[in-house]
Amino acid sequence: MRFTRILPALLVVMTILAMATPAFASDGQPPGQVVFGQDVTLQSGQTLDGDLVVFGGDVWIEATSTVEGSVVAWGGDVDIAGTVERDVVAFGGNVLLRRTARVDGGVMAFGGVMEREEGAQVRGQQVVNPQQWSWWRWGWVAIPTYPYFPSDGLPALMFQVAMRGVEILLRAVVMAGLAGLVALLWPRAAARVGRSALERPLPAFGMGLLTLVVGVLLIIGLVITICLSPVGIAAAVALVVAILFGWLAIGITIGERLMPTFTSRTVAPFWTAALGAGLLTLLSDLLGLIPCVGWIGGFLVTCVGLGAVALTRFGTME
């Protein structure tokens, strides 16, 4: 699995850790609760002000208890007999709604099953193991499907292929536009990073891989120490920006080398950069369709671009 697919989930988890402080509203503490490796029970009559996020544990919301937010469980089951004022989400676990349960939002179960006793109330949508999901480079979103669309057969296959093609094309267009803006706003910095990546790919790859590993470990360490979590979030944002800038810089340089006669014109840098970054993104996504090994191309470009950014100090030096 390519790092650019894992990074968004990591950033989401770190954001939750930074924003949610373990405390109950009844104790007069800041709202929300995050728990690692333990089961959590909200006893009858208790009220939790904020979201409840549990990693590696089960969740029990007893009758007459209230969560004034969402309940999210990673790798655990969720048993609801009380009230949840927003959503209930379980990743890799089951969801059981007792007859006294009331969920004002939606209920989603990924990698598990959902059971709903008679009398349980759910005001939002109920989603269990959606079949058509697609990964995006900087996150993942659901491919839209129609309720009446067949779930199997040739029409469903054609629909999935068409939506995948739209996804790849849209991502290439977005990256092309970003590259054009970077080429107009920071042309020298992008040129230095791009030349470093294409002329010295091996040193850039080594530096990029080292920066990636050390950066992720450093971010995790900062986030775990709650008092330094804002620093960890800032470091994560900087790492994402560096990866994106390196990718775009490589695309800009490729575009300049594909269309060298147009680089001296006023408007041309935008289009040459857009062409290079769009083609680079499109080629990476097409290679990504190859099972098992398709991710290697995108990972190599990510590491080389990040290494070039580190070697040139964000393009401020050769």
User: What is the end-to-end distance?
Assistant: 33 Å
How confident overall, as mean pLDDT?
78
**Overall 3D form:** elongated
Hey, roughly how much beta strand do the residues contain? 15-25%
- Looking at the chains present, what oligomeric state does this protein adopt? single chain
The number of domains: 2
Total count of strands: 18
Number of helices: 7
The residue fraction in helices comes out at 40-55%
What's the gyration radius in Å? 23 Å
Strand order of the largest sheet: 1-4-7-10-13-16
Instruction: Encode the helix/strand succession as letters.
Output: HEEEEEEEEEEEEEEEEEEHHHHHH
Care to give the gist of this entry?
The chain is an alpha/beta fold. The protein is 48% helix and 18% strand.
